[in-house]
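Bug report (template v2)

What were you trying to do?
Predict the complex of my protein with tryptophan.

What happened?
Run completed; filing so the output is reviewed.

Input:
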Amino acid sequence: MKPRVVSGLRPTGKVHLGHLVGALRNWAVLQDAYECFYFAADWHALTSDYADTSGLVGYAYENIADWIAAGLDPERSTIFIQSMVPEHAELYLLLSMVVPTPWLERVPTYKEQIEQLSTKDLSTIGFLGYPLLQTADVIIYDANYVPVGEDQVPHLELSREVVRRFNNFYGDLFVEPQPLLTKFPRLPGLDNRKMSKSYDNSIDLSDDAETVRKKVMQMYTDPKRIRADIPGTVEGNPVFVYHDAFNANVEEVEDLKTRYRAGTVGDVEVKKKLARAINEVLEPMRERRAALLSHPGRIREIVGDGSAKARAIAAETMARVREAVRLKY
Ligand code: TRP
């Protein structure tokens, strides 16, 4: 039997190149060697976006279409929506009985996010419980591995502590999940700030070729370089970070870097080649998405089937947990 992998993304907006590099490419590769469960974490989206829930369902379906366009295969992976498997919430509730609140208060993302997202009131039970819900998402499938970025490592440390404590009370019920770190460093936004919906600084997988071209031509580069004959810095320059991530023509990238450092190439050439490279990556995805969306109801069917499959497993786990907690009537 293959080891199990579970991971999720929050449907808070469109899927962008950051998701592709930071998660989806890796998720697609893992499908060969692991039994994979991938889901839209709509309840997690609610932990910060509870005030306006109007976009949630639309984003969840659209995001999943993008995941499949990017290479997830619903025949091999179980693709589902978190709230369509309500057993996650039941497990979260039972876990919450034994987990001390200071464990959650000291998760580094907790205070950080409250400060950063100061326009939202995050002093809620739901937001405090974010990593505990994430724990339930993972352990309900006995997942061995969770592909995530560096920022999520503390959540998995918490998950393992929670598993040990719960197992201690009720018997050997759950597996301790380990992170599978995604190697590529975080993709910067087009303006070199953190890529974020609120900065409007991403290229989305669903952008058409012309939009991609326009966005790339406006990208931030080396600000010292006010003329093409001034030597430029390649390291950490978003244009080259993107070339490394998306341009399969390694020789072309090396040539551009050499000439950029020497001050013998203009930004326009670097950017035109980048736009072309990104569009070459996105074009097959556009085709797959169009094919998928040309069958009305197909996405709903995939999500419905995936959620039913996930739910059958989650229900078995919960039957076992209720019995261990002696909640069997
Ligand atoms: N916290 C994750 C993120 O922000 C999303 C997530 C929710 C998740 N539940 C999960 C990731 C379970 C992995 C496993 O990206």
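What did the reviewer find?
The mean pLDDT is 96. DSSP finds 14 helices and five strands in the chain.
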